[in-house]
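During the second year of the project, the team shifted from modelling isolated chains to modelling whole assemblies. The rationale, set out in the original proposal, was that interfaces cannot be judged from single-chain predictions alone. As a representative example for this report, we include one of the complexes processed in the last quarter. Its constituent sequences, exactly as entered into the pipeline, are reproduced here:
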Amino acid sequence: MAIDAATVRKVARLARIAEPEEKLEPLARELNGIISWIEQLNEVDTDGVEPMTTSVAMTLPMRDDVVTEGGDAARVLGNAPRTERGFFVVPKVVE
Amino acid sequence: MSDLTGLTLKAALDGLAAKRFSSEEITRAHLGAIEGSRALNAFVVETPDKAVEMARASDARRARGEAGPLDGAPLGIKDLFCTEGVESTAGSMILRGFKPTYESTVTSHLWRDGAVMLGKLNMDEFAMGSSNETSAWGPVINPWRSAGGNAALTPGGSSGGSASAVAAELCLGATATDTGGSIRQPAAFTGTVGVKPTYGRCSRWGIVAFASSLDQAGPMARSVEDTAILLTSMAGHDPKDSTSIDAGVPDFASFCGKSVKGLRVGIPKEYRVDGMPPEIDALWEQGIAWLKDAGCEIVEVSLPHTKYALPAYYIVAPAEASSNLARYDGMRYGLRVDGANLTETYEQTRAQGFGAEVKRRILIGTYVLSAGYYDAYYLKALKVRRRIADDFDQAWLTCDALLTPTAPSAAFALGDKSDDPVAMYLNDIFTVTVNLAGLPGMSVPAGLDAQGLPLGLQLIGRNLDEGTLFSLGSALEKAADFRAKPAKWW
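Output from the structure prediction step:
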């Protein structure tokens, strides 16, 4: 299940990280090194084992469906790269 | 004034209560020490004005008889904690200039109890690293050096700034976080005490997320009791974190010094790994002897899936990270690098904002979660994670806590392992099992190696049983009588 440059290109695209062409081969080698080390997990018998997604044995708590805070645009926008008249300014999404 | 920076947190609080010195005095002593220690690169933001203002407010509270449990004590805060109005970057270029408009729950507890903030502590970028070398702001230097050598050593990571600042007496204690060993390994490398509490003990609200099912905040300080005092303040149920445990917070300091007679301490045989320095093995044997002398019953236990913990972690943590770090899109906060279109803007922002190790982990996480690989990698890792947690449940049938080494080596030189990701990951071989199972763990300084560098022993406890760890930890501390300090070169 070797990772090649094409796989790295695809994964980087999915992750929205620009990787220059010349970095794809070295990255593929690195990721292969890590993934082949990880593959020792196949030695473990996990038949019938329930996947563990959390170590907290409790159901997610429910809260009352009420407004707790809000109406504070200045704080919400406080770190935005660009704003205008109380809005985030972002690149055009729909052409 | 340097005698004020050398105090334990407990001694400082006693001195403040007895009015032997003011918070402003001890705070200024620490600010002076920080100023004189920039060579360590432990602080990424110093907040001297805020510190003095908080110290004066503390002195005023004390004069009115309203002092809280940490009143007047100057602390350092790992840069992963959001602090209102104070730059919080998580060691990343992508958050340069980010000033949160809110305060993390854990730090708000410390300020509620009267503590004083000295500044923000350097760390590996997004807490991804074991040597502090992935910080966008340069590595932290360990105040410890090998005997006769002057090579710069790592303080460990990711909480390297916290470890270095505590060891160099730049603060009385510090906050830290631990996803795979990021509190305990730096504690071992710097001769300090570090506690990773039970998952859910401390709220994750306002802490920059790395791997949400593993991340947990905890204290670092120069004595077991000091970490107990800090944890009592940091912990507590928080409705803003849905995984926060709704359990009472005991006075953890009350467990320090309690008799450990009759406690059963398990020694997991799988923690004897090939290539471990004989000194670490010898220290472990010494720790066993100390606890036996203190009245503990030593039992051999088996945690058969130990060797699979790290590979499972390197699926689970990157998978969660790739999801958590999707929020850094350059739209609402943080760096934005404009591209020709929206996708390019995302791609350039993230390419320039993230460092190499963070990108590597996002790519691994994206890969193991992608169509066709999800079952083979991610689901498999979650099943192995269950096996690892089951191993501990089996162990608890015959023992009350476990004793192991904290790390497989002493502090290494900066640059030694930065070219080999897997070699770097192996640093966490003894610590990462605890995160996967959600258990509390503690590193206690126990001795020096032949080069004069500190080594730590790790205690692992049952869920929510930090109390037993504080009792055993203070027994180890008393027996080890670890008083060595780094010789000041910086």
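The mean pLDDT of chain B is 97. The first helix of chain B runs from residue 2 to 5.
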